[in-house]
Structures are given as C-alpha cells and as structure tokens.
Amino acid sequence: MFTLEWFGNFGYSVLRLSTPLIFVALAAVINQKAGMLNMALEGMMLSAALAGVVFAGFFGNVWAGLLGAVFFGIVAGGVLAVSSLSGKTDLYLTCIAFNLIAGGGTVFIMYMLTGEKATTSAAVKAYAIPLVTIPLMDKIPFLGKILSGHNLLTYLAFLSIYLVWFFLYRTRLGLRMRAVGENPQAASSVGINVKKIGYLSFLISGVLCGCAGAFMSMGWVNFFMKNMTNGRGYIGLSAMNIAGGNPVGAAVAAVFFGFSDALATMLKSQGTSFPTEFIEMIPYAATVIALVLINMIRINQKKQIEKGRKREGV
Amino acid sequence: MSKTRRIETTVELVRILVAVGIAYGIALVTLIAISDDPVYIIRQFLLGPFSSARRIGSVINLAIPFTFTGLCFCFMYAVNKFNLSGEGIFMFAGCIVSLAAISLGGKGLPAPVMLLILMAVGMAVGFVVSLIPAWLDVKFHANIVVVSLMLNSMLAFLSVWVLKYFMRDPSIGSMGSFMIPDVAKLALIFGKFRVQSGFFVALIAVVFVAVLFFKTVFGYKMRIVGSNANFAKASGINMTNTVILAQLAGGMLAGLGGTCEILGNYDRYKWVAGTQHGFDGLMVAVLARKNPLLVPVAAILLAYLRIGADVVNSRGDIPIEFITVIQGIVILLVAAEEFMGRYKKRLIYKAAEEDMKEDREHVCLH
Asked: Which residues in chain B are closer than 8 Å to A295, comparing Cβ atoms?
C-alpha cells in the first residue's frame, strides 16, 4: 500500500484539498491585519461557489464562472463592510447573520434556478477550471506526481501567498492597513481613512473567497452542493489564528489542515472497520487541537518573557 | 436622564418592530415575485398558522425549543461570548437522552422519576459540552466561535455514531433508534391543540432565568461583565468564573431543550444532521435583546414565521430556506446600531433642548 506511487497520490491530494483553505486563510489574514476577525468567510465562499456554477452555466464558459464567483465574493465582502463599518453592527453578529443568509439563500436561489434543493449536478452543465501540467516538472518521477497537473487555482493559491505578503509588507497601502489593525486611533490621527481601509480589506478578502468558492464548485467537484464548504471557512480562519496573522504561516497551517482533510478522505476510501464518523471528525478535531496547542505555546512564551523581565528587574 | 432612557427603550422597541416589519415585507415581496398565485400564497403565509387548532398548536410546539435555545443564547450573549455550541448540544442531548430512555425503559420506573432523570441527563450533556469551548477560551484564548462550531460538527458525527452503534432499530428501513418508551414521553396537552407538555418546562425555565438575570447577584455580575468588562474587572468581579458559569447555564438550557424536543415530539431518535435550533436561538436572543422575559415572545414570532413558511412550502412549492435569509436580515437590522440611530439621536436632542428650555424658564421665574 505504501508505495512511492501512493505517496505521490496522497501528496497531490493534500495540495488539492489545501487550495480553498489557503485562499480562505489569506482572506482571514487580510481582514485580521485591518483589525477585524472575519467569521463570514464560510458564507462568502459558499455564495461565490454557487455564483461560479450559475455564471459558468449561463454563459457556457468556465472563465465567466470564475469571474462571477470572484464578483460575488466581492459583493459579499461589500455587504459585510457596509453592515459592520457603516451600519456599526457588531462584527460577530454580522458574520453569523451573513452565514445564515448565505446558507439559506444559496439553497433558495439554487431551487429557484434549477428546481433542485440538494445539488446542481443534474440541472446545470458541469464546468471545470482546467488542470495545468507544468512542462518538464511532470517528467520528474515523484515530485512531478505531487506538484504537476493541478487545478489552475491551486497554483494561483500558492502565488497569492506571495502576493498577499507583498501587499502587506512591501506596499504603502499594506503598511497603512497594518497600522489600522494595530491601532485605529493612531492611524486615524495621522490621516489614514480607517473606514476606507476596512472596506478595502473586505473587498480583497472577497476576491480571495471568490477564488476559494470557485475552486469548491469548479475544481474540487464540478457542481454546487448544499452547504458544500462544510466548515472550511472556519478552518481557514483558525489557520490564520494559529499563525498570528502571518500570511506565510497561515498558508502553512492551511496545508496542514489540507493534510488532515486528505487523511480523512483517504482513510474513508480505504474502507477500514473503524467507524467513518470518527474519521470525518479528523479535520475539525485537528483544527481545535492545533488552535489550543499553538495558543498554549504562545501563553507559555509570554510567561517566560514576563519571568525574565522580573528577574532583570530584581 | 430618565427621559433619555425612556426614549432609548421606546426607540429600541420601534426599531425591533420596524426590523421585523422590513424583513416580513421582504418575505412577502419574495413570495409575490416567485409564486404563480401570490394572493393565495400570501394568505397561506400570513393566516395559514392560524387555520386550524392543530397548526396553532404546532406554532406553540415549535416555540418551545426556540425558547430554550433563545434562553441559552441570552446567557452567551449577556457575557459577550459567542459560544455557538447550543446547536450541537441540542442535537447531542436529544441523542443521549433517547439512549438513556431506551435503556431505562424496561426498569419499571414511574414516569415522573424517569422524566426527571432524563432531564438531568440532558442538562448534564449541555453542561459538559458547553464547558469545552468556555474552558478553552478562558484558558488558552482559543477563538470561541471557531471551537464551538468545530465542536458542533464533531457532535453531529458523534450523535450519528451513537445512533448507529448503540440504539439503531434494524427493523425499520430508515435510520432511527428503537421506540422511546411511553413512560419517558412528555404527554400532549390542551386537547386538540396537541401541545407537548415541555411547554410547562419552558415556562418554568423562563421564570427561573428571568429571576436569575434580574434578581440575583450572579445575574447582576453577568450583565456588568457583558456590558462593560473593564468596569467589571475594576470593581473586583471574578470575570473568569462569571463568564464560564453563564455559558454552563446556557449549555444546560440547550440540553434541556433537546430533551423536551425529543421526548415531546418524537417516537424515535432520528436526527442525522444538526437541527438548526441553535442558530434559531441566536436570532431569538438578538430579537429579545437578551431579555429572558421577551424570549418567549420572540420565540413565538419566529415559530409563527416558520409554520407560515412550512404551510407555503407544502402547498405552494416555495422552499422553506428563504426563512433563514429573513432571519439573517432581522439579526442584521436589529443589531445595527446605526439603523434608525439618527432618529434616536434626534429624539434625544429634542428632549434635551426641551429640558434646557424648561430650565431656563424655571430660572427666569425665580
């Protein structure tokens, strides 16, 4: 069972399942750096996933689907921004309410358009974002298997890690965003428009969630399914949380969660006698455990630092 | 001062009514837009819930779990912790209580003892489960929303596992447990309205929680922690204890809710996915502005909306999911400070100006 071939396949599956999580984790990073904990990523991703299928089906073109998904991701981000920044609604409540709306609304719209309540697979023609074979790379025996032949969005996800990092740490706007996140009053006192930065961060995270949603419905599978994101928005959020808002760290954590997802999928398909219910729990349990462990380490470090300070003081 | 407060209370009430009105308007417009026979559909939606004794009964029946989870979220919301485990607790408590009922069924216990034991079991489930996110939040600062949602997903799988391996009735085709013994069932009351007697449990819970909120030291502490954490800390309130205890109380109520739901309305346990009662409870708590006495009112309102949608769903081919959207809109509008904020400010300014004028006249008279 554990042949090189098998490991190659498993590695491929890890990267594939990490894709939406990386996008979502980066979206969470962008919001976090602007000082907001965005818990509506789940709903943003879900509405983008439906938009992707609907637009692709309507225009008969997969790129129209991708654009539609990104557009609806941005719209979702805009709704959240208006509600929480201009309407001054508690951000937690806004996000929970938005997830409710997205959960029910996508089923409602799907039913209105197709007459189906569970999936669009029968009613809408399937479109998939193409897979990309990297020339030369695919000739390398083991690595080629893992790294080549992925969905275009998978490569885009890894590229976005760099883009988000560059935006946050190498551009003026990124610096301003981080300033707002650190201390909005201070940022505002030097003339930064805090509200505008907040809007911008929601719009960027909308684009990223749009890509994540497009991957779910036009890459992972080729149709929309009721509640297909299945907690991935929250898992991406915890990836950000674990890395303390660092884009590279968040992506690493996202790949780790992609690994636990791939592990669960693989164990299920292997057909063990172990109850599948517990296997299905793996990604969720991994999230909670990782979140607790990393915070435990952080608290310990803080304690050490405080101890050190005391000693120096003495 | 008292004038300002009075204006605030009035505006609050008007705001909630307007929010519900807007949401209802959106629901009606949606129905008109998508149905072939709008007049019939709308009559069904508005009056359907009152069309028979059975339906009025089902509005009340549906309001019972909403009351429990609404009270649960009053606690979470009061201490400003969005512990969403109520959703998972409701389902898991139903599961464990069914298991307990089935295994205690043959022991010949009298009904009252049996029911008390089962309710205690349900509350214990809520206690244990809500402790997990509460404790991880306090101890390790693990994001409580993420942890509780992950926990909900895990509890759903755990419930299915318990159902499959410990109490599945192989003689029925669909997934379901053995029959819940009659001695464990909550009787139906009010004759043909067919309301389950969990109704009384819910009433007792409302009174109990209201007393706890408004007449005890703990309730006062809790409200202070929620409204101004810094002040609470400065005045020496043990924040950690208060926050955890409030969440445990909330969890126990959600557990009790799941218990009454399963014993009152079901012959067998057959939930294989989350029941959404938890998130409905959040809306109830938001609508009631975390006031336990208003929770039953909000619960009945939501139940009326739901049954209306149910009637429309069964007769008019309109998916019931649009109610979730309406629910989200209500939460957004009620929670939005700026929604009608200008109106409130204008009223307060006006009152203040009048006060000043009166004061001036008063001074002139002297």
From this structure: 140-142
Any domain includes B93 = yes
Residue A284 domain-assigned (yes or no): no
Number of domains in chain B: 1
Residue positions counted in chain B: 366
The tens digit of pLDDT for each residue in B310-350 reads 888 776 567 778 888 888 888 888 887 777 777 777 887 88
Distance from CA of B270 to the nearest CA of A (A): 16
For A86, the closest chain B residue by CA position comes to B338
Domain around B88: 59-317
Domain assignment of residue A83, given as a range: 4-231
CATH code: domain of residue B266: 1.10.3470
C-beta separation of A217 from A50 below 8 A: yes
Tokens 């043959």: give the residue. B106
Instruction: Evaluate whether residue A108 is within a structural domain.
Output: yes
Give how far B141 is from chain A: nearest CA, Å: 7
Quote the ipTM score: 0.83
Quick check: is B116 in a domain?
yes
Token pair 């919301």 in the structure block, residue: B77
* pTM, rounded to two decimals: 0.88
Q: Is residue A191 part of a domain?
A: yes
Q: Residue A313: which pLDDT band, with cuts at 50, 70 and 90? A: low
How far apart CA A286 and CA B251 sit, in angstroms, is 24
Residues of B in contact with A297 (CB under 8 A): none
